[in-house]
């Protein structure tokens, strides 16, 4: 009897425990279901509005270098409901770009474009990253796609033109820069690269025409004045007239440095010429004529020992046939290109 009573009691306890367990599981499942319901159509619509508004705040903050504001705004859109949107991935790419985190930025922008192939801002920024990584071919190809998405943006055509210029594709550079000027007629930066391109092609008349156009609207444009001096020397062989147009040596490109160093040499300002030409003489941009010119400069300054050192330097270095020298040339050209690009965002140096 006692044994049967114990069995009945045990069975009742197990039955009660099972019921409690089932009730607990039912309540847990119900609570879980209530905690993570799928977003309603209204909530989804509101999230898109919030994402667009916050995204606008982030972009404006990054444009003006207000990185703290951008980071605070970014924290507002970390809920799951935002993360599937192409705009979220684009904003993630912009945040990473501002932090110089190129791989993370590329991943985020690639995701944005996979979700929304016509996301022109993501495409443009992806091209900027390739340029920052000195991969100008990828930058060019990406900006070609950007311009197909948005064919009327002068800044997109301008950066594409810069990429063509750096890659030495001068005919295509003229086409892209001309397009940029078609949509922004007084875009002096585009005219400046157009001048540099015409000079590379030996079209001095067109180069001078563009320079005069810049100076007509902006008489104090220092870069345009520097370029005009180069044109004057190349066409008129007048070093004094060219030097009168030199406004700031610090912003001279390597081509302009070559020109003005020769101007200084011809007016017998050899020390000025040597100072300006030194970095060119030791660079891969120097050809045989440049090396002879620098040796002559050193000898005219009475620096025979330095001339001997430089002579031994150029004897040891067969740089014109060197793949390393070619890579170095490209890196120097790339550095110049980065300063010429239109940058939509500031970065946290």
Automatic annotation (TrEMBL):
Q: What PROSITE patterns is this protein classified in?
A: TPR
Q: What name has this protein been given in UniProt?
A: Tetratricopeptide repeat protein
Could you tell me which InterPro entries the record lists for this protein?
CellSynth/LPSAsmb/PSIAsmb, TPR-like_helical_dom_sf, TPR_rpt
Alphabetically ordered keywords of this record: Repeat, TPR repeat
What SMART domains is this protein classified in?
TPR
PANTHER family, per database record: LIPOPOLYSACCHARIDE ASSEMBLY PROTEIN B (PTHR45586:SF1), TPR REPEAT-CONTAINING PROTEIN PA4667 (PTHR45586)
Question: Carries keyword Repeat?
Answer: yes
**TPR repeat intervals:** 154-187, 188-221
